[in-house]
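Good day; I would like, with your permission, to put a structural problem before you. What I wish to show you is a protein chain and, alongside it, a tokenised description of its three-dimensional fold. Please examine both parts with care and let me know of anything in them that strikes you as inconsistent. Thank you for your consideration; the sequence and its tokens are set out here:

***
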Amino acid sequence: MDQIHQKLLIIDFGSQVTQLIARRLRELNVYCEIHPFQKITEQFLKNSEPQAIILSGGPASVIDEDSPRPPMALFKLGVPILGICYGQQVMMKCLGGSVERGHGTAEFGRAFVTKKCDIPFVDGWFDEGDEQVWMSHGDHVSAVAPGFEVFATSPNAPYAITADLSRKFYAVQFHPEVHHTPKGSKLFKNFIQQAGFNGDWTMGKYREQAIQAIKDQVGNQKVICGLSGGVDSSVAAVLIHEAIGDQLTCVFVDHGLLREKESDEVVKMFRDNYKMALIHADERDLFLGELDGQSDPETKRKLIGKLFIDVFQKHAAAVGGAKFLAQGTLYPDVIESVSFSGGPSVTIKSHHNVGGLPEKMGLKLVEPLRELFKDEVRTLGKELGLPSSFIGRHPFPGPGLAIRCPGEITHKKLDILRKADAVYIDQIRKHDLYDEIWQAFVVLLPVRTVGVMGDSRTYDYACALRAVTSTDGMTADYYPFTHEFLGETATRIINEVQGINRITYDITSKPPGTIEWE
């Protein structure tokens, strides 16, 4: 959508933590966009009209002949620029400084920078001495570009903080966006103050703007929205309904892979609270029939994606020829779809609502949340008046329990999994832990183990409990339950769920694991 607020442009050179730069800025009520360096042309800059620019870190070396560079026109825009790590080095290289590589100048991990003199860019830093930062660089700046001065150093980075104050160009060798740089957010705050931002990125304004954009895009055409009951699709549906009312029809697909009572809860909320046109598509037989005998995780995901297309196609026609499909696509989805090298990214998992779905259906996409992070979607949900019980729900994957049931899917295994998951979530709620956890669920493992119950031998399924903490789902760590909680929960599941006789707890972080098992 066209932006009417101040905009900061982040040019991505392939850093694993570029997204965190955007997070820090959004927390300061600054609207920003991340774009790969390949996209940044002189014409793009002219059309984009950013009020400031940040150059991200990246894995390349500016010393290499084919290293990524921004157009020189960027430095002639007359706007403040901040270079971070590779961004600092590429600034120096483009503007007449020098970058070298050599033994003893690399820094990886925690380091401390020492102030040389004060400037507004470092307000709030060095009040108690040297500041902790996070370094991750092999090359180093060996001579700053004309006009730049050095304002802080570290043992292996003599140009840790440099600036050309007349042009409001700033450059740091460390990563202020990561939490290992404890006062990094202060640098971002100082930078945006130097750039004249007034913090106009608010969810109230975004709501007004998004509603107008939906009206402009859709006109008087009909829209169908794939409603899963999760936070993203729920917020998207309510926002679109506020914009176009009865032109929207939600399609809630019950594919037989939902959690216990989930279908009833979703349908009741949307029919009772929002008076939306809602089609409750009972497609359990279709999905479970097609999944019968399938055990490969990618095959299961792709099969489910194809069936979603079939169901949406059917109902798009049924509502009188819908021309648009609404999805709850978020900004991390958009960012992750961009390959640093310009080539195809490695596919970790297929997603049923990503790719050519609308093209195959002859529909255009409406994605009103594609500029938002997950926590911003929850804030928008509050702005729209969604019940807190829905806003705070843990994420649930589109393929549902199919990817929490490794191996072949059967009605019996799904029933066991639903019951175990219900007990687990009930335990988490009883111990008042639900809101501390990003996502929690049970995985029914494709193995059976020997047990003993009431002096009799059992041969039943094992299951794994999974619970993680996260900010946006990009990285995650396991939740540190007490042994008492785990023991109590294991006892309840074994006693209350017939078919399980062994419980494990998954303590894998992301990375190296993913949150879901398949």
Remarks:
- The domain at 7-194 is CATH 3.40.50.880 (Rossmann fold).
